[in-house]
Amino acid sequence: MSQMDIGVIGMAVMGSNLALNMADHGFKVAAYNRTAEITKTVIEKNTHENMRGFYNLPEFLGSLQRPRKVMLMIKAGKPVDLLIEELLPQLNNGDIIIDGGNSFFQDTIRRFNYLKEKGINYFGVGISGGEKGARFGPSIMPGGSKEIYPHIQSILEAISAHVDNEPCCTYIGENGAGHYVKMVHNGIEYADMQLISETYLLLRHVGGYDNKKIAEIFNDWNQGELHSYLIGITADIFAEDDTAGGQIIDKIVDSAGQKGTGRWTSIEALKQGIDISMITAACNTRVLSNLRAERKLAQQQIDTPVYKKELDNDFIEAVRKSLYAAKIIAYAQGFSLYRSAGKEYNWQLDYGKIAAIFRAGCIIQAEFLSKITKAYSQNKNLENLMFDKFFMENINNNQSDLRKIICTAVNTGLPVPAFSNALQYIDAHRSPQIGANLIQAQRDYFGAHTFERVDKGGVFHHEWSEHYKK
Ligand SMILES: NC(=O)C1=CN([C@@H]2O[C@H](COP(=O)(O)OP(=O)(O)OC[C@H]3O[C@@H](n4cnc5c(N)ncnc54)[C@H](OP(=O)(O)O)[C@@H]3O)[C@@H](O)[C@H]2O)C=CC1
Ligand SMILES: O=C(CO)[C@H](O)[C@H](O)COP(=O)(O)O
Fold this sequence. Notes:
The chain is an alpha/beta fold. Helices cover 54% and strands 8% of the residues. The chain contains 19 helices and nine strands. It has helices at residues 13-24, 36-45, 57-62, 78-87, 105-117, 130-136, 150-159, 177-206, 211-221, 229-239, 261-272, 277-289, 292-301, 315-345, 351-357, 369-378, 389-412, 417-430, 436-447, and strands at residues 6-9, 29-32, 51-54, 69-72, 96-99, 121-128, 139-143, 162-163, 166-167. The strands form two sheets. The protein has a seven-stranded mixed β-sheet, with helices on both faces. It has a two-stranded antiparallel ribbon with strand order 8-9. 45% of the residues are buried. Residues 10-15, 33-35, 38, 73-76, 79, 82-83, 101-102, 127-128, 130, 259 line the site of NADPH dihydro-nicotinamide-adenine-dinucleotide phosphate. It catalyses: 6-phospho-D-gluconate + NADP(+) = D-ribulose 5-phosphate + CO2 + NADPH.
């Protein structure tokens, strides 16, 4: 085989599938994994004329065309730094390292600057789509030097998912922008998944439907405006039988982990002063789900509310409409964070294009995303996605169902933190009074923090009197 177009390090789920995807698209791919046995297994299982396994790093690097393009698909965090240090003495000026893992964007900014000083071009590339996406077309979010991007553009675009012949891959911005966009994508993914889980609780415990019926409901919804990858796989999951009888879903422990991207999104939003309460609620629910002993104790001690569930004929439709309204808020929150990040990190983020590359390949791919692209194409300075005409009409048409469903869940004692936070977000924006005048007064009372007045400009302090004995 002549010189290889690109080398991929990391032959686990993502790396092996991306490498095969590249090979399918005619690129010559060098494959390498720290544990050689894994490379051997991948190569033996997937013989491909364009893919070759390497069992030591110098030979792997020696096989690559200059400037070398080395893609890292390994565990995020320290392993990436360790590997960069191992690669550095073996690379030349102008070579390109592409980190396709879920690296923290601040690490990517640090690595980008560090490697720039050493003459190496570094790209932090968000990739979403899981195993299937990696193999047949993920959504790709490249961040790094715009000048160097053309060196990797054709490979990334070719292997990405496509919608109407458009690649779901677009240059995002400098240094950590690609990984930032992927991080928030995952935050939205958390909120989307949490909403669907709460929907399941409502259908099961208020509606009283069994798994097969819930599968049908999700499948039915997947034919309409809620059409999305996550709703589609949810329908499949509920339809899946267990060999031991019943459905697998009932055999799975009610406790979910996380690798960090959702939590990073929440922390980042708090730092920037952006309310992404639904994403944070989704993170917190996973955290709470892990407190299995504590939950058991609470189940034994906290009384279950006694409530007569009144199911009307419109219940399923009310849940569907609530899900749609709440989903709008989840995306509005995520895209508000993009808007703030663009200013904070000096990235020219194109929100419409970001939504467009999420239309296929990634975990949050949905019908809905073309509406977001349309909203930003009509007004690229949209303050908040909620204010787009289409989304606002949906919020207004669906909010009474959202209120009804949340009340039912609260009265039944079902936890619906994502739904509730969606409504809180709507009401906090909508309500003429939010109560912050009292907060200002309290801060001024105890700390002379001053306050603003409604009747004149400026800042004021008041000498508050003690009217009552404390
Ligand atoms: N799985 C998914 O659905 C998705 C994953 N991602 C991200 O893509 C990246 C790869 O994910 P995935 O394929 O799931 O693999 P894992 O995150 O499970 O990582 C396993 C790979 O990392 C390698 N590795 C670990 N430590 C080191 C090290 N110190 N030096 C060199 N290699 C090391 C392993 O090599 P070895 O075999 O020798 O241990 C193996 O190839 C991760 O950043 C992940 O967060 C992104 C989108 C989706
Ligand atoms: O990036 C991904 C999907 O887009 C990965 O599947 C990621 O692992 C999901 O996050 P978590 O493991 O925290 O649920």
